[in-house]
Amino acid sequence: MPTIAVDKAELYKSLGREYTKDEFDELCFEFGIELDEDTSESKRPIVDGVEERPQLKIEIPANRYDMLCFEGIAMNLNIFLGRQSIPNYRLVPPTNGELLTVNVSEDTARIRPYFSCAILRNIKFDKARYESLPFRTNCTKTWLDSERWLPLVPMTWTQLKAPSHMKLFHRSRSNSRR
Asked: Is 0.85 topped by the overall pTM?
């Protein structure tokens, strides 16, 4: 099971109250996840001259891809606690009526035979939200070690130019381009 670290104070703020370690551990148990560690009382790393804020390290079941980031954990716990309703995601055509086309090269299709793409609108990104995206976590980096996994690439709408193309580069070549 992947372990996701979240800022303790921010999660409690999102959940609308403070919890003792035992209370939060019980909430996790009731929901079906596990509190692996609360770093409040341990020595935390110094980042840019400041001690890292206390974190909760939460084990997430392997089939809960929706909980691989702070926002997913907070949203699901708030739904469980009755503080939030289940989101109603809808497929909505673009306002200009123009659909985006993504072309996958034959070389790429042989290695990664499946492709998926989504454009999400009306999402506000700040540095913290971007940093919590699942593709930035160690568990996802581990998944992406397999050549068959598709990377997650966030882009703003203004960065996309139709048609888009997906092409794989050999691992040693792509590492040298960074």
From this structure: no
Q: Does residue 95 form part of some domain?
A: no
In this structure, are residues 36 and 57 in contact, taking their beta carbons and an 8 Å threshold?
yes
Distance CA 129, CA 160 (A): 21
| Containing structural domain, residue 9 | 3-80
Domain boundary at 80, 110, 132, which?
A: 80
> How would you label 111-145 residue by residue, b for 16+ Cβ within 10 Å and e otherwise?
ebeeeeeeeeeeeeeeeeeeebbbeebeebeebee
Query: Is residue 62 helix, strand or coil?
Result: coil
Question: Cα-flanking dihedrals φ and ψ of residue 12, to 5°?
Answer: -60, -40
- Phi first, then psi, for residue 104 (nearest 5°) are -105, 125
Our count of domains for the chain comes to 2
SS3 content of the chain, % helix, strand, coil (to 5): 35, 15, 50
- Digit-coded pLDDT (tens) for 72-103: 999 999 999 999 999 998 888 888 787 777 77
